[in-house]
Amino acid sequence: MNRILIVKVTSLGDIVHGQPVVSDLHRAFPGIKVDWAADSAFADILRWNPGIDRVLCAPLRGFKKRRGLDDLKAIAASIGELRREKYDAVLDLHGVYKSAIIAFLARSRRRYGYRAEDLGESGAAFAYTERYAPRGNLNALDGLRNTVSQVFGYSLEGAPRFGLRIPAPAMALEAAKHAPFALFFHATSSDEKKWPVGHWHSIGRSLVDQGITPLLPWGSEAEHKDAVAIAEGIPGAIVLPRLSVEAVAQHIEMAALIVGTDTGFVHLASALQKPTVMIFTATSRGHFGINVPGLSTSVGDEGRPASVDEVREAIGAVLDRPEDFTQSGAVKPYDRPAK
């Protein structure tokens, strides 16, 4: 197999989960070219993976929101770019109409997609010449790796390798003045996934006592309001300005600790091998949780929100020796070997 197209359009966490598949394919098929099609909003993640040859993206979410002519033109241009190469196989890891249309438009006689009963939208079945079943007895990351290995008949080797290389910032980040710092990813896709503001206050004050400054990112006005409410209860906590995806990733690289709910940036932090604690309240820890011994862990579960004590204990486990994270011994960005 010489060239393959992977289609996974959204979301940030799901695209992060898919990156080890790229490394697996390169091991199984030396010299293979791997292209990836996704929404423009998540294209940066793919560009950080040197194992991906072409990143094919279109503003699908933007067009849905704005219905603008510029977005429509960009989508049309992306179709031309999609069809520039011929593929030995197209693998749709998403299973909805928009991903199926991309798979169908690509130049390939072999288009792999989920079985009809496993599709996110059953009508997507029209696009595929081959069907496969997901490995439902594993967590999302391992299940994806195992599924693709079975589709293409290769064995998995070792732990997942994400291969992501975050670009260094053009200038020093303002946040560096506050090192060592922790990033609190408090924002969620739904209210039921939120962790109580008072709990964030307790954890933030504990970190301040250890010499670690909590920083709070946000991506919408509602999230900014929540960030302010959390920061108000933590002496010295800082609400960051609104950041791009790349800038958030650069802050993750510099952070001494990441604490957050089940969201894409927390999955990215774990993929980058940062000390990370993921808090669960309404989603399945068994399916979506992170667990890299000594580096990242998950607490709480669906219907059983994590307690403050559980999160505090988990932070101690991933930091191991919190006294190492003083101003003189802060984690420095970009000084770790490439993964």
Structure, explained:
The protein has 339 residues and is an alpha/beta fold. Helix content is 37%, strand content 16%. The chain has twelve helices and twelve strands. Strands 3-2-1-4-5-6 form a six-stranded parallel sheet, with helices on both faces. Its EC number is 2.4.99.23.
Keywords:
339 residues; alpha/beta; Rossmann fold; six-stranded parallel β-sheet; globular; disordered C terminus; membrane; lipopolysaccharide biosynthesis; Glyco_trans_9; EC 2.4.99.23
Quickly describe the structure.
The chain is α/β, with parallel strands linked by helices. Helix content is 37%, strand content 16%.
The CATH architecture assignment of the largest domain turns out to be: 3-Layer(aba) Sandwich
Number of domains: 2
What is the molecular shape? globular
Structural class: alpha/beta
The CATH superfamily of the largest domain is known as: Glycogen Phosphorylase B
- Widest β-sheet, arrangement of strands: 3-2-1-4-5-6
First-last Cα distance: 25 Å
Membrane topology: Peripheral membrane protein
Catalytic activity: an alpha-Kdo-(2->4)-alpha-Kdo-(2->6)-lipid A + ADP-L-glycero-beta-D-manno-heptose = an L-alpha-D-Hep-(1->5)-[alpha-Kdo-(2->4)]-alpha-Kdo-(2->6)-lipid A + ADP + H(+)
InterPro entries: Glyco_trans_9, LipoPS_heptosylTferase-I, LPS_LOS_Heptosyltrfase
Protein name: Lipopolysaccharide heptosyltransferase 1
